[in-house]
Amino acid sequence: MTRTEKIRARLEEAFAPRRLEVIDESERHRGHAGYQEGGESHFQVKIESEKFKGLSRIERHRAVHEALGRDLVAEIHALALSIRD
User: Which residue from 6, 16, 35, 82 puts its CA 20 to 30 A from 64's CA?
Assistant: First the structure.
């Protein structure tokens, strides 16, 4: 399973989002710190879920990181999040 697939699976399980985009932006960072040959090092995630309702921006980010798990977060160099309820 690729990192992209793991991200998608874990977020779908945790938040049952009505919208989820997992975008591998690694190629845009070729030659920069953290770039890994083959990609899957820099991601942008756009997610919308009712489960974020009432949470602050920081609480939303923490919830996403918790859902992804320390193991997966440690494999990712950069993770940009756009989170809506």
Answer: 35
Q: How far is residue 50's CA from residue 30's CA, in Å, rounded to a whole number?
A: 36
CATH of the domain at 22: 3.30.300.90
Query: pTM for the full model?
Result: 0.89
Say how far apart CA 8 and CA 56 lie, in whole Å: 22
How many folded domains does the chain comprise? 1
Choose the weakest-confidence range: 12-26, 38-52, 53-67: 38-52
pLDDT one-digit tens code per residue, 54-82: 999 999 999 999 999 999 999 999 999 99
| Residue with the two structure tokens 């940009």 | 80
Closest CA to 83 of 40, 52, 54: 52
CB 70 within 8 A of CB 64: no
Domain that includes residue 15, residue range: 3-84
